[in-house]
Design goal:
71% helix, two-stranded antiparallel ribbon, mainly alpha, 257 residues, 2% strand, 2 strands
């Protein structure tokens, strides 16, 4: 299976023989049903089928409930199916096992924030301290600051990131969201468009640009931007809701729906 299965995880693209890899993993599990490594790797090979991956990861978790790798992958797969509460539970369990692991701190912070857990900012700070070279930790911290009303601090942190890495699409996107929330819509559009230029396949940047356009009363432009987000991520629930909102904003556009 290892020989025929190679993926570029950064772009979510696999160019090798996935059916062959899955068959090899299934044969390994048939020989040894408790072989967690084969079960876990099969779940990763099913990354285009998150529901299938979740089923195999739960099976692996039943065998080794304290496996950090299984919990991490299960939380990631659940988040991809928009089961944020389930993902949060998985990452909270992982965090109890490895309280200083930067990636787990980052996921726990994001999902904890969605669940209303006030510790999210503290977790992001710990992630920054554990892995200061990763700008995503600081970007997540800025988002938590913004959620808690610390806009000046969040803006300063994001600007610092962009001074060090001007082409960081996530920092541009986060700054665009911040400026939209503070009413600086021109600055918001500038940063959101830059985020899209740097990473055109990011559905969140298109969605946020559509929201900013809607704030400006530009319903047609908002519809186009949000439709692009929907094309990139057809399963995005928030995207679908925003697409409907932009359509209803101007009922003359109903034929485009």
């Amino acid at each position: 299976a290892y020989e025929i299965y190679q993926c570029d995880w950064s772009s979510d693209v696999c160019s090798s023989d996935l059916p062959g890899a899955l068959e090899a993993y299934r044969r390994a599990v048939a020989i040894d049903p408790a072989m967690v490594q084969a079960i876990g790797n099969m779940s990763l090979a099913l990354h285009q089928d998150p529901a299938g991956a979740i089923a195999w990861l739960r099976r692996a978790g039943a065998i080794t409930p304290a496996s950090l790798e299984v919990l991490f992958n299960l939380g990631t797969a659940l988040a991809r199916t928009y089961d944020m509460h389930g993902a949060w539970v998985a990452f909270a369990r992982a965090l109890a096992i490895a309280p200083a692991f930067p990636a787990i701190l980052g996921y726990a912070g994001r999902l904890g924030g969605m669940q209303g857990d006030g510790r999210s900012k503290a977790w992001f700070r710990r992630a920054v301290a554990a892995e200061p070279a990763n700008p995503m930790n600081a970007i997540n911290l800025a988002a938590a600051m913004l959620e808690q009303g610390e806009r000046d601090e969040a803006e300063a942190l994001l600007k610092q990131i962009l001074r060090e890495a001007p082409d960081n699409a996530d920092a541009h996107g986060s700054l665009g969201i911040l400026y939209r929330q503070t009413g600086a819509l021109d600055a918001s559009l500038t940063h959101l468009k830059q985020a899209i230029a740097l990473r055109p396949a990011n559905p969140l940047a298109h969605r946020d640009l559509g929201t900013a356009m809607l704030d400006l009363g530009e319903a047609s432009a908002a519809f186009v931007a949000t439709a692009r987000s929907f094309a990139v991520d057809p399963a995005g629930h928030l995207t679908a809701r925003n697409l409907l909102a932009t359509t209803l904003y101007d009922n003359t556009m109903s034929h485009e729906t």
